[in-house]
Design a protein that fits this description.
Length: about 280
């Protein structure tokens, strides 16, 4: 298992990212980033809507690792879709993060038919701005988040640059097989948000029994399981020993038969957030 994967534009991406959703801004964000980086994480995932870009940025400044060794992702919030607003929102994220460039910028959620008649056009206009940022070297890769096949297809029809990433909810209780297959077939890397199901999958009996056989925690099993499914996990924690634990997954391998068993677990512990029905 490699510590890095390659995006479809040949950019190297560290194969585990530190998720920061629900990490409060300020000292907690700054300290969590510092602890994560000290424990080996090189990849930080944030978003404008997480409201912690300033604290995350300060953590990056203070971590003692050169910027070029790190991989930093942020996301465009839904209220900022469209060409001009995307360019403006990107500028603000960069400023809050105190960075000169981003490694990856994602459209956080697709505009969809339940909210917009012209959802295809909105996504297309937003994507044009993403392409401009990429062409100007302000971001090393561009992608989307929470897009299903029927959102990706029209976007790609009009795109000059193909998305490098689709970040979706992914854990043993919510696998989104069709979307993952579509992305794999199109050489779009899938990143998994909430790889621990926001903590909800950790009490599953079968996962607990399996984790014990590897002398690992259920969290470590879930993170390794994502990696072996070619999905890049983004575990979040503000607890130092958990931050460390979640990165200690490169010293064991889940057997094919256990992978198959976990891949067959019925859905449970999903967030219930569906891009076609969200109201934000
Ligand atoms: P905390 O941040 O208080 O440590 P996800 O990444 O799926 O969204 O899950 C994040 C949730 O899981 C948070 O509530 C986090 O708590 C908790 N968590 C993260 N890592 C672990 C771990 N190794 N063991 C138990 N709970 C964890």
């Amino acid at each position: 298992m490699e510590n890095y994967l390659k995006l479809n534009n040949d950019v190297k991406i560290p194969s585990i990212g530190f998720g920061t959703w629900q990490i409060p801004d300020g000292e907690i964000a700054t300290n969590s980033i510092r602890i994560a980086i000290n424990n080996g994480y090189k990849h930080i995932d944030t978003a404008a809507i997480y409201n912690n870009e300033k604290g995350v940025g300060t953590g990056i400044q203070k971590c003692g690792i050169e910027r070029k060794e790190l991989f930093v992702t942020s996301k465009l919030w839904n209220s900022e879709r469209g060409y001009e607003s995307t360019l403006k929102a990107f500028k603000k994220s960069l400023k809050d993060l105190q960075l000169q460039y981003l490694d990856l910028y994602l459209i956080h959620w697709p505009a969809t038919a339940n909210q917009f008649n012209d959802w295809r056009q909105i996504n297309s206009d937003t994507w044009k701005a993403m392409e401009k940022l990429y062409n100007e070297g302000k971001v090393r890769a561009i992608g989307v988040s929470n897009f299903l096949e029927h959102h990706l297809e029209p976007l790609m029809e009009n795109a000059k640059i193909k998305p490098s990433v689709n970040q979706i909810e992914f854990h043993p209780g919510f696998k989104q097989n069709d979307c993952v297959k579509f992305c794999n077939d199109n050489n779009i890397l899938v990143e998994g948000w909430s790889p621990l199901g926001r903590g909800k999958v950790l009490e599953n009996k079968m996962l607990k029994e399996t984790a014990i056989t590897y002398n690992k925690s259920v969290a470590q099993l879930c993170i390794r399981w994502a990696l072996q499914n070619n999905v890049l996990p983004l575990p979040k924690s503000i607890t130092p020993n958990r931050i460390k634990e979640n990165f200690e997954v490169f010293d064991f391998e889940i057997s094919e038969s256990d992978m198959a068993l976990i891949n067959q677990i019925d859905n449970f512990g999903g967030s219930g957030l569906n891009p076609d029905s969200i109201d934000f």
